[in-house]
């Protein structure tokens, strides 16, 4: 009799719990950048279910664009900046950068304008902390003219203005196949916005600049002191990420498949640790790429391409920023150029560029470990993944 009386209460509690879980789940929108030499048309806007980890294969929008390989979303999520990684021998041989407006309610994307990057194969962009300038990294596959950093002012309407400053440096020439000229791979601002760090794969250096557009609008970057950070010969720096508190930074070095850990203060990076992603493995296993930290700052995730095709999980020491390896997981595909943690923190999405898939895997928020694969979505040459959340 008591059980009969309790049953409705137990059921009510169960339904309440399910309702709470449902309330926590949310449909987000996912932007996918891609290379367009094959079947891809450009940028795809997709629906993502954070309860199941499923991407709806039917796009909400397809934005036709040539090689929109890297996507930069403004902090307020009202604007999107895209590098068009064009160059000699491609359908469009001119490197370009595009600005789009994002509708705050629907997240629909509409073109504002497009300008030239004044370099070949622009592969990365980032906004200054005050959103007044866009830093574009022209990688440039060929030796002549080589890679450059381009600085573009951003108008009040987020329209891009023509390049106002270019910067380039001599290469290290350590690797005769890949380092005979500069190859600027990415450029990011310091957390305080006063410095800019440009990673040059061809030079084996991070170049450091002071950013002060008020002092000289036509030359907003000036060399800092010291003007560069020397890295191991032939290492090929790629992407730099600052910790949320701004005290540490991590750098992937593509050619040596390593992650360098730094202390950061007032424009200066001091290396404190070097982590091997493919120690003792053949050169074909060495192609470090993307790195992202979890929202709570406890875990760092790094992709290694080549023949390794792995995602590595590290625990972050909160005091030092040092890394402790926790897991190596196959990406179940080829060439994980980029990846992204979904806003709920329960899933990690991997853009396997050469196997033409986006892989969704479960993630344990407490341990940081990656679990089973929940979806393999066919997508031609995906190169970047960015989430949009409701404001």
TrEMBL record:
<keyword id="KW-0313">Glucose metabolism</keyword>
<feature type="signal peptide">
    <location>
        <begin position="1"/>
        <end position="25"/>
    </location>
</feature>
<dbReference type="Pfam" id="PF10282">
    <property type="entry name" value="Lactonase"/>
</dbReference>
<protein>
    <submittedName>
        <fullName>6-phosphogluconolactonase, cycloisomerase 2 family</fullName>
    </submittedName>
</protein>
<dbReference type="InterPro" id="IPR019405">
    <property type="entry name" value="Lactonase_7-beta_prop"/>
</dbReference>
<keyword id="KW-0413">Isomerase</keyword>
<keyword id="KW-0119">Carbohydrate metabolism</keyword>
<dbReference type="GO" id="GO:0017057">
    <property type="term" value="F:6-phosphogluconolactonase activity"/>
</dbReference>
<comment type="similarity">
    <text>Belongs to the cycloisomerase 2 family.</text>
</comment>
<keyword id="KW-0732">Signal</keyword>
<dbReference type="InterPro" id="IPR015943">
    <property type="entry name" value="WD40/YVTN_repeat-like_dom_sf"/>
</dbReference>
<dbReference type="InterPro" id="IPR050282">
    <property type="entry name" value="Cycloisomerase_2"/>
</dbReference>
<dbReference type="GO" id="GO:0006006">
    <property type="term" value="P:glucose metabolic process"/>
</dbReference>
<dbReference type="GO" id="GO:0005829">
    <property type="term" value="C:cytosol"/>
</dbReference>
<dbReference type="InterPro" id="IPR011048">
    <property type="entry name" value="Haem_d1_sf"/>
</dbReference>
<dbReference type="GO" id="GO:0016853">
    <property type="term" value="F:isomerase activity"/>
</dbReference>
């Amino acid at each position: 009799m008591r059980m009969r009386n309790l049953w409705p209460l137990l059921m009510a509690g169960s339904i309440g719990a399910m309702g709470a879980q449902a309330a926590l789940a949310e449909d987000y929108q996912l932007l996918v950048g891609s290379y367009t030499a094959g079947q891809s048309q450009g940028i795809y806007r997709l629906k993502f279910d954070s309860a199941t980890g499923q991407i709806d294969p039917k796009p909400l929008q397809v934005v036709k664009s040539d090689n929109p390989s890297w996507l930069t979303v403004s902090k307020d999520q009202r604007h999107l900046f895209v590098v068009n990684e064009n160059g000699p021998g491609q359908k469009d041989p001119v490197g370009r950068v595009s600005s789009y407006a994002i509708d705050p309610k629907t997240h629909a994307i509409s073109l504002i304008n497009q300008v030239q990057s004044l370099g070949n194969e622009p592969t990365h962009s980032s906004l200054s902390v005050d959103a007044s300038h866009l830093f574009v990294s022209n990688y440039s596959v060929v030796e002549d003219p080589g890679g450059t950093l381009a600085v573009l002012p951003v108008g009040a309407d987020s329209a891009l203005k023509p390049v106002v400053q270019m910067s380039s440096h001599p290469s290290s020439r350590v690797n005769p196949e890949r380092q005979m000229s500069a190859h600027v791979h990415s450029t990011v601002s310091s957390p305080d916005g006063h410095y800019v760090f440009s990673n040059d794969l061809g030079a084996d250096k991070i170049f450091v600049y002071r950013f002060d557009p008020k002092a000289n609008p036509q030359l907003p970057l000036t060399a800092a002191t010291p003007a560069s950070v020397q890295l191991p010969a032939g290492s090929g720096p790629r992407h730099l990420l600052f910790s949320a508190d701004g005290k540490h930074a991590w750098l992937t070095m593509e050619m040596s498949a390593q992650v360098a850990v730094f202390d950061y203060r007032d424009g200066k990076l001091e290396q404190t640790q070097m982590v091997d992603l493919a120690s003792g493995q053949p050169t074909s296993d060495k192609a470090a790429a993307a790195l992202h930290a979890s929202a709570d700052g406890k875990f760092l995730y790094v992709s290694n391409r080549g023949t390794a095709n792995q995602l590595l999980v590290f625990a972050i020491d909160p005091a030092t920023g040092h890394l402790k390896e926790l897991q190596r997981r196959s990406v179940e595909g080829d060439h994980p150029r980029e990846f992204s943690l979904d806003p709920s923190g329960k899933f990690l999405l991997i853009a396997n560029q050469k196997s033409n898939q986006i892989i969704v895997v479960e993630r344990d928020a407490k341990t940081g470990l990656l679990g089973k694969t929940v979806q393999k979505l066919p997508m031609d040459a995906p190169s970047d993944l960015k989430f949009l959340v409701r404001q």
